[in-house]
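Milestone M4 deliverable, item 7.
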Amino acid sequence: MRKWRKILIAAVVMAACGMDGTAAQMATWEEVSSPRPAVVQSFDTESEVSIVVADGYIYISSEKPVTVKIFSILGQLISRESLKPGMHRIKLESRGIYILRAGSTTRRITL
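Output delivered:
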């Protein structure tokens, strides 16, 4: 039983880091004017940031600088960046469930 557990752990690590063992390249945020009209998920919060998920992108709008972190559902850091005020978007390589933390706001995102 332990042998299978070690094989499973090794497979998960290889999938997360790539076959050569190096960490996968982090996705980066880009500044945009507005999200496309087809909104999949929208979060109306009374916080300092607005989060919209549309067409496979995560959009963040903020009136002041904000630090944004995206984690996989397993807790692996996908992206960490300090964003200027305005609208920014990021496209993640794979579909799934992610945890997004922007300032004091934390949301579950499904792509």
